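Researcher: Going back to the complex we discussed earlier. I've cleaned up the inputs and rechecked each line, so this should be the final set. Can you rerun the prediction on the complete assembly and write out the structure?
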Amino acid sequence: MGFLAGTVFDSLFELLFRYSPLVFRQGEVRFALSRTAYVTAVAVGAAAASALLTYRVVRGGADRRDRVVLVAIRLVAIALVLFCLARPVLVVKAAVPGQNFVGVLLDDSRSMRIADAGGRPRSAFVTAELDPEHGSLLARLSDRFAVRLFRFSASADRARSVRELRFDGAQTRLTDALLRAREELAGLPLAGLVLVTDGADTTQSAVTDAIGALKAEGVPVFTVGLGDESIDRDIQVSHVAIPRAVLKNAALVVDVTLSHAGYGGATVLLDVERDGRIVSSQEVTLPGAREPATVRVRFTASESGPQVFRFRVPPQPGELVAENNARDVLVEVEDRREKILYFEGEPRFEVKFLRRAVADDKNLQVVVLQRTAENKYLRLDVDHPDELVAGFPKTREELFAYRGLVLGSIEAAAFTGDQLRMISEFVDRRGGGLLMVGGPRAFAEGGYAGTPVADVLPVVLDRPAQGSSPFLAWLNVRPGRAGVAHPAVQIAPTEQASAARWKDLPPVTSVNPATRIKPGATILLTGGDAQRREQVVLAYQRYGRGKSLAFTVQDSWLWQLHASVPVEDVTHERFWRQLLRWLVDGVPERVMVKAAPDRVDPGQEVTLVAEVADGAYLDVNNARVVARVTAPSGRSTEVPMQWTGEGDGEYRGAFAPDEDGIHEVHTEAARDAATLGADLSFVRVAAGDEEYVDPAMRAPLLTRIATETGGRFYTPDRVASLPDDLRYTGRGVTTVEERELWDMPVLLVLLVGLLLADWSYRRVRGLA
Amino acid sequence: MRATVAASVILVLTASAAAQIRLPWFDGRSREHETREATNIPYDGRFVFVRLSYPSTTGRFGYGRGAPWAHDHPRAERNFMKILREITYIRPYTDGGNVLALDDPELCQFPVAYMSEPGFWTLTDRQAAALRAYLLKGGFVIFDDFGGREWDNFAAQMKQVLPEGRLIELDVSHPIFHAFFEIESLDFVQFYDRDETARFYGVFEDNDPKKRLLLVANYNNDIGEYWEFSDTGFVPIDLSNEAYKLGVNYVVYAMTH
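Model: Rerun complete. Updated structure for the full complex:
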């Protein structure tokens, strides 16, 4: 409401002082005192002095306080008269008619079609007021200035007439538009810029850059805000929190934020569509009073490749803007096998049941290194005969080839010091996922306290007391507070069903009494025994680039084999698949490329940023990195990428796709003759839907642009004073003008007020 | 190498026990007596040898040998568990094992079970359903100590448990024979029935030999007998050795496949 208060103030100011604050700010107040006026002033001064003396000798009913008040009132009144006699003038620099330029920037984007201007579209003001034949604003501006029109949306261009405008631009870029106009009009006597828009800027960047540049050159921007400051009836899909890339058949849990106005308490449908087919649908009851609703949506990414998912609420009766009811997001569904190394230190049934659980998951490959006896290993599901032939990896390159690492009941002493550091670096530097599974040789019981691996784990390892009897707890496992809604431990299709299933599962045992977690860790599952003693069952934390998990149960296979579990039950399978998929979710490759933004309009530039590392995941700054962009038509272009010099291993390149559709970006990095790695990413080229996001007119932004550059903000009903205000910006070719101030209404108001005060005081005090 | 280690352990066991243990066939005590002494231990995370009990077609054997399922109990498992502990990193309960009926819910806490003399095995519908669920959910059963015409009864009972399951003969290339020891030949020299060739059968998940083995049947063989007498000198060491190698491989396979 700040701008409204400012507008009222401006109007009042202009009424009392004859000129707007803008004119006063630009001008200078002086006194044009003539000889006659000087003599008159002296005479008035003398009269005032004699009047004061008269008061001094009067001994009426008035006491000292009355005299002070009355004298003060009269002195002020006399001062006012003296002020007028001194002939105050406002010296302003006024633009010479016809000698100066004004740039008028017109918003040509789609949001200008929103019909919230008294039932008419926002664009109606532009087409009416700036029409070359009938536009009154244009006519008045043209009387005084040479007007240069610009149209802008995603880009800004000169326009000969408003009739060229189509109001179909998919973006609004205020910064680009202002800077383009400044550049175009550089060197000309410029009185100022007029920005006619709804202010719905769709860029992520702030307008600070443009404001700074214009301020430095003293170019004032006069903004005209079109549309309502708040939309009364609207539902909008504001945000979709979804990963850029997921593994095929991943059970996605996506948080969707719905904002709304005027639909509190209404129940609406939220659909997720892919290729026009609904993959998920659920009812949402919207909270009251414009409060946004966060909705958890679940669906499965069953098709591989780049997939566009549309999150959509069907338009509601009476809704003003239907275009913001849907939001499209691009997700790369990867159909690859995530390779996980499971090192188990003793033959036990966890290996068998874990392998069975993920056997049918084509996207998980669990390579088992099973120690069966001293220096004797069984290798399962290896890719080639030499894999792990010498036991647990001894080099970083060998270990970092895996994306996940599961440590079973294997004691710390089974590793060399360097191998323990390697495991730590596997998480920290390589960004892999580490999971330690409970057992007599795991956690503190396995001697990990004080090792580099202990630093990585999310639980605090307390060294077991010497001579204490072995710990064994039968645990009923249930989700912790953070686990209730966490996708990794959802073992049934819905949150409620999952909670019920956890309640039904048979108890399991733990020999690792972990009760404390690290400060940054989160508990997903807890367990309680018959004595109601609680312990951590599943916890995780981010560590460096990766994450680590602690699962303290030693026989999760009981969730499969137990007599109470039906043969057809898949809870155990679901648990391990989800847990292992989550373990390797987001694990980086040696070459990682991100496109920003990943959705652009045709012709808009995309920046590619690649991170390049070698087999030991050390950043590489001297690689040759090339991205090959393939358009939907099959046309392919090469985009060379250069080391940025800003960050180790960081390379950057850019391209501007001009075809609609999904573009494939295949990036390869090589050093000398050796290939370091490659990555595949996607960019979607399509008209954006940002124009209708938060579609209300953004008065605060427009006010800020105006105020900081020395201009003024207008609404259509107050725009009449714009041409006059532009005359007094002090920019361009100007003449000095003196404006009389003695006849300002405020002086008369004050004078009359003082006389009334004098009279009233006397009446009240009985002096009259 | 491993075979040598196993043999050494057997020798140690033999030496330490020979003075105390007499052959049970001739000591006048019934095995059932020993069975009654057995008490089951609750599951605590360790590997426990589980022997399946069942009502048999013959009741008791002659010569005081007790119920068929109890043949070689409990010394067979005691000896085998000691071997398992010495040879591998498995943590077994070494003082014998548990005896459980097929439909005992406790069975589902022990993913490997052993059945002796399935040639005399009978089962109720409830037991058949329980064993079927156990096998399909991931349990593994070792059938041992049967031969000749006893096959017919075993196959008939298995038909009741897994009507769709086919008993497929295993050859030496199957991973179960390489899970711990590298068993290079399945040509076993028999101690009692010299005319019969030892054979190994299994039922696979979905009858697909590439998938998990649900059970193994030692047809024309009796590795439990060799375990039982391995510390007495009654059975040749080589034979006991081979029996232990099979037993260790079965357990390691069941834990990893």
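Model: Worth noting: The interface with chain A takes residues 2, 43-45, 47, 87-91, 105-109, 111, 132-134, 136-139, 179-180, 212, 251-252, 254-257 of chain B (CB under 8 Å).
Researcher: Good, that matches what I expected from the previous run.
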